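for the writeup, i need someone to sanity check this before i put it in the appendix. the sequnce is what the collaborator sent (i think, or maybe the updated version? ugh). structure was predicted straight from it, no edits. if anything looks off just tell me and ill rerun, i have time this weekend
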Amino acid sequence: MNNEYGGAVMGGGSTTVFDAPRARHAGRGAPAAGSAPVRALQRQLVDLASQRYRGNGRFAYHFARGKLGGDPMFIELLRLGAFSGQRGVGARFLDLGCGQAVFASWMVAARDLADEGRWPEGWPEPPRVATVRALELMPADVARGQAGFADEPRVQVEHADICQADFGQADVVTILDVIHYIPPAAQDGLLQRIRTALAPGGVLVMRVGDASGGWPYRLSRWADQAITLGRGHGWARLHCRPVADWSAALHALGFQVHAVPTPGGLPFANVLLIAHVPHSPAEGAA
């Protein structure tokens, strides 16, 4: 079964939890992944989001440009309207395993562009960003993130172990390409703490490697190991699961889950899991 994101609906047969603008535009010429409008907006956002790292050394700046421009996940999250259910005065984001916080920079840039009236017609509006709390274990990444956001009060980059940190309360939690570095015994506990932190109507976005994905999955694991080694973090042991197992674990916590393969780029077995907390028990049972 497919949903408004163009992916499979996972867990309890749920359909839509929040009113995603992507659903409203799906039959009226919404931009396709990789199309000229998508690429044009991506170039604008890469320029804006990476600019804050320019004075923080060549590595920080070029890493931000390479990651944001080369990974289709970032523009896809906006194209799909993954966070568009977060309305009102602004959403409280919690980004777990943030690195130098390029995701935070991306979301701030998207919102700033929309506030300036420069957002493309027909695109889902990016959420208003009240705060982004970005947690990272690696001190060098934390230092680059803190320097990049020294003049941005909406974003706080913290040195923290996400397996132990107090998450507080959030409207949106993101954990992108991170949870497979955590030992299996701690993964379910982390998901439970995320669920506790999320307000009703909140959303969790994870990107995971699909362990049932065959050779694309093995390729993605090799790439992860190469990147980890290249950044000086040594050889990391990865603890992956099939997407169906991740979805079942989230559904058991009360989430309604949509699985969306990441389009474009290299043939990795990467899947976005967009998991919503129902606004009410009745909605969760629907």
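The first strand starts at residue 8 and ends at 10. The radius of gyration is 18 Å.
thx in advance!!
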